[in-house]
Amino acid sequence: MPTATSINHVKSGTIADVLRYLAPRTPRGGLIRLIDWAPDVFAVTAYLLHKTGAYHHALNYGSWAKLKKAHGQKRLTHEQMQHLGHEWRKRMDGGQRPPSPVSALWRRIMKHRALSLDKVYDHLALVALLLDLTGCADAACEGLGLPASPPSGKSHLIASDLLVSSHLGTGASTLCQHITPSTLCVLPKLHTPQIGMTIRSLTHHLAMWPRDELCPVWPAELLNGSTTREEGGLNVLLVPYPYTLETAQFKDPGINMCGMHKMADGFRFVRFEPESARNWLKNEFPRLLRKAQIAAPGGRIDAVVFPELSLKNSQEVVLAAEILLEISPHAFLVAGATNGRQNTAQLVIPFPIETPDEKEQFVLLYEQAKHHRWQLDKWQIEQYGLQGQLPPGNRYWEDTAFSQRSIYCFPLKRSLTLSVLICEDLARQEPAARLIRAIGPNLVIALLMDGEQDSRRWSGRYAGVLGEDPGSSVLTLTSRGMIDLQRKAAGKKAASQMCIGLWRDSMGGSARELRMEKKSSALLLCLSTDKRLEYSVDGRSFNTPVLRLTDHLPDGKDAIKQIRL
Q: Average pLDDT over the chain, rounded to whole?
């Protein structure tokens, strides 16, 4: 008999082995209690469908016609799944057992505990039960793990506690009570891919993440504080700082060791040293924010974004956030900054706490390290005019330290979840892109240290990939300083406009170039929220919020505004 630990690597063992692997601390007699919490049930059914590939049958009409003819067994309709799921949710909110048809599905699955995994694909009666219960569990978890105002029901509070406690305990967030997050995580989900056919095509509200090197983090402490943010559109200020760079900021640190070993000939490290932005933040940034506030619809700035390695350290990130919050109390800030030898994305979010006597405003600082090093080859060295600092005969790896890889998904409001990638992490599909596709955040922001953006370049291509699957809106941003280095190296004069970023959403078309005029210091994007009807392969549909950048606002004004000092 294979051990439970082998289940994660080979398609062997039995369903009972899978249950022991996923819920090792749950006694056999307690497995029936998994049905009380829909994310636990989903973890088991989705894992079995994925592990065996049996979810492929969801689109095979002939399979279900054959099943009905041979055994008289019918699949649940998508209306029945929705109804049972909503009833299940009401009972979770009330601390009650699930509806009897849901419990019956689980009991019938448990009767097949001794079945070998390699027999599951061809056992259509069991596959039908797994697919039906997966659909019911997904419908039961609509909005779970997203901000609710006011918080709705007991299940919302339980989900919030689970997401926080699992992250504190294991480094990874999960909605599960009994399924250990060291083997599998279940997370909230916003987008269902409308192309291709994967296990992600089955659900609207839940994502399955078999654990690997990447820790998914869902900061559930935001679920209550974030309810102060208005639903609807989003006014995002793009600040392509620094506006100038010197080639001397790119340095060979003189290190030739990679881990315990000496690097091969022809390879070196390069370190970029940001200059302090403290004076600019204190003097120019407040003026820029007030100009943007005047131009923004409703006088509201919701977010400010700085590129990769634009600020020197966390202290400057916090300073920028404090200045921002004085002008726009509910806005959040995303910036690239160093932390020692680490290249990080840092996000600062206001967090109000109300007591019977007063209301206090705190800020929460989150930090996500870069997953992949940038490598500069001869072409890139010449592209940015760095030959005087970095002899082109070598290839240079970015000198950044690695730590536990993680991807945050920030639930900022019910219609907005946000993930951030750092430059190379957008281009390298492993491991971040798989998790992004699983949880389907509404918005992905890629902080770049790159030349002028062009929809035909690499950033446009990879933004398009995420725009199609899972359907996220993608924003990229680089600094004007990098664009200037690129232009000087090419012997070009400063243009009247430069493309500092790209926008791509799921509503079709290529990436849109975000052009800033030479006399401007920032761009204000006035994003609107639309709805996209998305279908899962079992026929259920859901209107998913989509962030869009249109040409004009409803009042006819431009949706992209040049901000000048």
A: 91
User: What are the helix (H) ranges across 226-375?
Assistant: 278-283, 285-295, 314-327
Q: Pairing relation of β-strands 406-408 and 261-262?
A: unpaired
User: Cα–chain-centroid distance for residue 348?
Assistant: 16
| Residue 327 tokens, joined | 């002008």
Residues near 79 by Cβ (< 8 Å), separated by ≥ 6?
Answer: none
What is the distance between the terminal CA atoms of the chain, rounded to a whole angstrom? 72
CA distances from 191 to 144, 207, 497 (A): 14, 10, 35
pLDDT at 5 over 50: no
Stretch 448-455: mean pLDDT: 95
Burial grade of 10 (CB within 10 A; 0-12, 13-18, 19 or more): exposed
Residue 551 burial by Cβ neighbours in a 10 Å radius (0-12, 13-18, 19+): exposed
* Whole-model pTM over 0.90: yes
Kindly give, in sequence order, each residue whose CB lies less than 8 Å from that of residue 206, ignoring residues fewer than 6 positions away: 39, 42, 46, 137, 138, 141, 144, 175, 186, 187, 188, 189
Rounded Cα gap, residues 317 and 276, in angstroms: 11
Share of the chain above pLDDT 70, in %: 94
Measured from the Cβ of residue 244, the count of other Cβ atoms closer than 10 Å reads 11
